[in-house]
Amino acid sequence: MLGAFVRAFSTPDLRNKLLFTLFILTLFRIGAVVPAPGVDSAGIQQCLQLATEEDTSGVYGLLNLFSGGALFQLAIFALGIMPYITASIILNLLTVVIPRLEALKKEGQSGQAKITQYTRYLTIALALLQSSSMVAMARTGQLFQDACHPSEYLTFLGTPTEWLSTVTIVAVMTGGTAIIMWFGELITERGVGNGMSLLIFTQIIAVFPAELGRIWNEEGVWMFSIIVAAGLVLITGVVFVEQAQRRIPVQYAKRMAGRRTFSGTSTYIPLKVNQAGVIPVIFASSLLFLPQMVIGLMGQDPDSRVVQILSTYFDPTGTHPVYMATFFLLIVGFAFFYVAITFNPTDVADNMKKYGGFIPGIRPGRPTAEYLDYVLTRLTTPGSLYLGVIALLPMLALGASGASANFPFGGTSILIMVGVGLDTVKQIESHLQQRNYEGFLR
């Protein structure tokens, strides 16, 4: 494998792609630690230490993970890539609902470029909303759950230009999201791998050293070893399932196009066990943030019956059985929903029939669509259960061990790391194979 690395860097164009990708990722991490104007980084660190003792991993724990720890530091890249992810998910859902978007999707590259432009606009709007909400929470002290006074980390409070400084922070964070989008597109065009996915991957692994060091200091060597071993076993299982797929054979009959004759060919339709990826987990996590947002908006009034119910059954640590059961059911439901809107068996069957393709033993047209829908349902059932179990296992293990819910070996982070890592390695391997090398992994 080390030899493959040497061969990759000895190829000029591949070396330039790798170095360019590393350069953009370095700039991205620098922006994640540079505080926004008017923010005292030393005060932020003190408040963060106090907040850690009170476990502020509730509403914004996943967002802080996806920002590489930049969220609680109020950095210029504090929002991370989450606004873009949310915008992409919303556009994918609206494509099924709005006929205009569905027509654009079928137009090919030009239509996809238009949808990408809409995604950028929606990302900026969401970034503006999220940055305004985050700055408002920081000014009221709710960002760290009143662990320290806002004046300890916001230097502009009480000054005549307080409103101008607030607007500046919001503008800087929104602009940071636009720069992150640009970084992702640059990596996709001139680097190696999918840019947005690599940025998420970088943000998640950025918190690993600090979290592993904290577990070593707080839990001891034995608990540290057990958790790391369990994490490696979990990663191995995720790699195995993510690579699993059902290959449906497809035979194309001999046909003529003009004066040319094309002989029959054999291929297959790859249907993954986890066809939905990590999207259902993100959907479910986002919905389960709503109860905590309601509690925050209601001022955490202890006398309110609604606050008492939400605080009891939807505790952000995720240890209550009602919370875990709801989380599991949402993941399973969203997995079926997302697969249904992203893979249309009728369209696939029609395209196969149009080009003379058929599944051996299945008649073209409607019987083929019904067969594909049957196979996809049988694959999605274990795939959705797998996602739910992977998402719940860290909650159960960490709840039993007493570790913090911010531990990075969560279901969402592992799924993203494994998926992005495998895709990136495959792309590098394809570059090497084009030059008659043995590949990235022997």
TrEMBL record:
Transmembrane feature ranges: 70-97, 118-137, 163-184, 196-216, 222-241, 278-300, 320-343, 384-401
Keywords from the UniProt entry: Cell membrane, Membrane, Protein transport, Translocation, Transmembrane, Transmembrane helix, Transport
Protein location: Cell membrane; Membrane
PANTHER family, A to Z: SECY/SEC61-ALPHA FAMILY MEMBER
Oligomeric form and interacting partners: Component of the Sec protein translocase complex. Heterotrimer consisting of SecY, SecE and SecG subunits. The heterotrimers can form oligomers, although 1 heterotrimer is thought to be able to translocate proteins. Interacts with the ribosome. Interacts with SecDF, and other proteins may be involved. Interacts with SecA.
Similarity annotation: Belongs to the SecY/SEC61-alpha family.
Function (record text): The central subunit of the protein translocation channel SecYEG. Consists of two halves formed by TMs 1-5 and 6-10. These two domains form a lateral gate at the front which open onto the bilayer between TMs 2 and 7, and are clamped together by SecE at the back. The channel is closed by both a pore ring composed of hydrophobic SecY resides and a short helix (helix 2A) on the extracellular side of the membrane which forms a plug. The plug probably moves laterally to allow the channel to open. The ring and the pore may move independently.
UniProt protein name: Protein translocase subunit SecY
Species whose genome carries this gene: Lipingzhangella rawalii
